[in-house]
Specification:
single chain, 400 residues, mainly alpha, Amino acid/polyamine transporter I, globular
Length: 400
């Protein structure tokens, strides 16, 4: 039973992390080249793993089912609660907008290809939202079953894509490097390891056993890193940095998530590659979309104290999806930008806040925990400084 629970915990962490970042990673890191991208990706994994263990330390002070807002209130007071509440809300709205925009663009491209004529922009997000938004309205159980099927589809298509594409990886593409350009991918890389919100639920699931939780967090966070590294080698090895059908072409595209499929298809020249890539893109974005949308709806219901009867669920669903739908229709090519803005809130919520919470709990409130992250004040200060650096780099990248 213990092993089964740890295995389940590992999958929960990995499944929460792996998502739309798979599509955005090569789009943003391609102009930097493989070696710079791998080094930065490893640094982001180490940073996010450290903040995850800090969040675990804070969670274990309570040993009950709490969320980051409650933990912030207990350690930082009303100010901590308000800040974490606002940042958490903005983060989930940013991510929901990104996923709605990404899937909308893919669906619109598919329909235009099928009908051989241009279609209005609303054809992308609205039909997709009506179907999967209804699943979120129904609640956790339907979302759980749909997510399992999507995760299976994601893994299967990923394996087949790798098998087909690795023969087309070229050494000169892997050797391409541009260190100044790699920083554009920092925001996406940080967001791609954002599984922290599952830690309170995971702690309850594993009975607050430190040994089991450490295994689940470490191995669960390592699996996404392996997936991302393989995907980076594949995409950056197949697509060149510059020239025709290159990452330079993608960097100038308004619909990069769609054009990535087109360029990979051209480079691999396999008749089933387009559909495989399209389905893979759907799978990774939808698994993220369902999890984030469900978290957002639960967060809104709890925050506004809305009862989950038929009328309440309908109102929560409107609150969950109307703002992202508005932004995805007004700014239809916002997939990458929304993910990058999301990184700012990730750095605050999952970087700055865990470090500040642990600092307050350890040194001001003198809270005792059966688990303590090494490094003391030096580590906490370093995490806070890195978090602010991520915010600054993300803002500069967006403004330029």
């Amino acid at each position: 039973m213990k092993k089964n629970r740890v295995f389940g915990g590992v999958l929960l962490v990995a499944g929460t992390a792996i998502g739309a970042g798979m599509i955005a990673l090569p789009i943003t890191s391609g102009l930097g080249g493989l070696i710079p991208s791998i080094i930065l990706l490893l640094a982001c994994w180490l940073y996010m793993t450290t903040t995850a263990f800090l969040f675990l330390e804070a969670t274990l002070w309570h040993e009950r089912d709490v969320n980051i807002v409650t933990i912030a209130e207990h350690t930082l007071g009303v100010v901590g609660k308000v800040v974490s509440w606002i940042v958490y809300l903005f983060l989930l709205y940013c991510l929901t907008t990104a996923y709605l925009s990404g899937c909308g663009a893919l669906f619109l491209s598919s329909m235009e290809g099928l009908l051989q004529r241009p279609l209005p922009l609303w054809v992308g997000p609205i039909p997709f939202l009506m179907l999967f938004g209804f699943c979120v309205y129904l609640g956790t159980k339907p979302v759980d079953y749909i997510n399992r099927a999507l995760m299976l589809g994601m893994v299967l298509t990923f394996v087949v894509i790798c098998a087909i594409s690795f023969g087309h990886v070229k050494g000169e593409n892997l050797a391409f490097q541009s260190w100044p350009m790699v920083w554009s991918s920092l925001a996406i890389m940080v967001t791609s390891f954002g599984y922290h919100i599952i830690i309170p639920s995971l702690s309850y699931y594993l009975g607050y056993r430190v040994d089991l939780l450490k295994k689940a967090l470490f191995w669960g966070g390592l699996i996404p890193l392996i997936f991302y590294l393989i995907w980076e080698v594949l995409t950056l090895g197949v697509i060149p940095g510059v020239g025709a059908n290159s990452f330079y072409t993608l960097s100038r595209s308004a619909n990069a998530e769609v054009d990535l499929i087109t360029i990979l298809d051209v480079r691999v020249s396999n008749h089933i590659m387009t559909e495989l890539l399209r389905f893979f893109s759907y799978f990774v974005i939808l698994t993220s979309f369902l999890g984030v949308a469900l978290s957002l709806s639960d967060f809104l219901a709890d925050g506004f104290k809305i009862e989950k009867n038929a009328k309440g669920r309908f109102f929560i669903t409107l609150l969950t999806f109307l703002p992202p739908l508005f932004f995805s229709l007004v700014f239809p090519n916002v997939f990458i930008s929304a993910l990058k803005y999301g990184a700012i809130f990730v750095a605050i919520l999952l970087g700055v806040l865990p470090a500040v919470i642990v600092w307050s709990g350890r040194y001001r409130l003198k809270l005792e925990s059966k688990f303590k992250v090494f490094g003391g004040r030096v580590l906490l200060t370093t995490v806070i400084l890195i978090s602010f650096a991520v915010i600054v780099v993300a803002l500069i990248d967006q403004w330029h």
